[in-house]
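Researcher: I'd like a structural prediction for the single chain below. Treat it as a standalone chain; there are no partners to consider.
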Amino acid sequence: MNFDFTSDLRRRLGYRLIDHIDDFYTSLPQRPVQLPADERSYGPLNEAMPEDGSDPCEVLDEVSRAMVEQGFHVPAANYFGLMNPTPTYMGFLGEALVAGLNPQLATLARSQLASKIEVETVRWIGERVRWLGPFNGTFTSGGNEANFSGLALALAAKFPTAMDDGVSAIGAAPIVYASAEAHHSLDKSAGLLGIGRKALRRIALNRRLQMDPDALVRAIQEDLRAGCKPFCVVATAGTTTSGIIDDLHALADVCRRYELWLHIDGAYGGALIFSDKHRHLIDGIDRADSLTIDPHKWLAVPFAAGVILTKHPDILERAFAVYAPYMPKAAGAVLPDNSRISTQWTRRMNAMKLWLTLKVHGRKAYEEHIDRQMLLAKGFAEWVRRSEHFELAGPVMVPIVTLRIKGVTDARQRAEAHATLVEEVTSDGQRWISDSIVDRESVIRMMIISYLTEQSHLEGLQAAMVAAAERLKETART
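Model: Treating it as a single chain, here is the predicted structure.
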């Protein structure tokens, strides 16, 4: 079968796909997140690789139906899980456009408008950070790569020869500090950069579950006395489990005092720069030397889209530029080649979905989206406070609520009760929440991430949670 379909067949396939996606989006407000527990399967597919082709319309219809009927649907309104959103429809269309055109963003000479759109999108984000001086950045595959890039920038800034001579040439152990609740991508990043995972110091939390600035100062002083070389602090704006936002001003003051690079992991909470009403929650974000934001979280675009930004644009090339004589250079270009400011070489155009969403809906649509979800989460937290079955497990800073079952004091029994309750709530597949660990304690976790979620969906979740809690109590009595 020839790869080059006729115009008529291309159009028929395209319309078929749009019909499937439209039906799916229409169903999302009431669609179950997954199949009921007794219908789920996790084994491999065993079909042999096809030697000959099949009718493309039939194959597309078959896989589209199967993905919907058998899939796990994070875009559903009843998904109260991790930071996986319902994608904007313009984001979906942007992805389709990029997949069809397949621009290569490694160099400006080979991408031109595609690179300029990415640079503009980065500029829009940086302007909302409110950096007054020069800044730059690049899109990444997600928060993992963005946080890796942030540590690489810090290493290149504080040890200028490290990228050429290796970390061993530093002569003493370089140290990074992060909250006990900071994302575990930092451990992986430290290992990949040659710093070593043991060089990542997890700092104690204060009563608000934030990184404790006093504990950070003590750790820095101890490391300096031991002959180590502290060089970076990673603050978090919206931890994955509980949504906690560190005291960014306090940590920035510590970094200024000890001349350390401040990287802020705002993969989720950094999106608050789009809300004038709630921006105060991330006061001090403009004091970051580098910053991670993931549009594929709170900004509701399809996977994958992360961003790394820095107010030290010269450090980007110091950290990532590698000379390659075969890479074309555009004469008179003033914009940087993406391959020289990124860990990636072959570069997909991940900016299009955010750029297109902003062009169609505008920044204020994100402000309304964020403010509305904050209000829904506040209402859910008030329900927890009034509940006879549950109590809050920590402060609610963003639309993430952690809670626990009342009346269970033994840590192991509480963890078992939480796991049982979550299984009860999710067993019919209608909705999804999770249990997790915060500060070494078991919690039940729910978050509002879909722009389709309404108060009625929260009331359905509350009813399911109460029913599960009452069954637990009845089981415990018998």
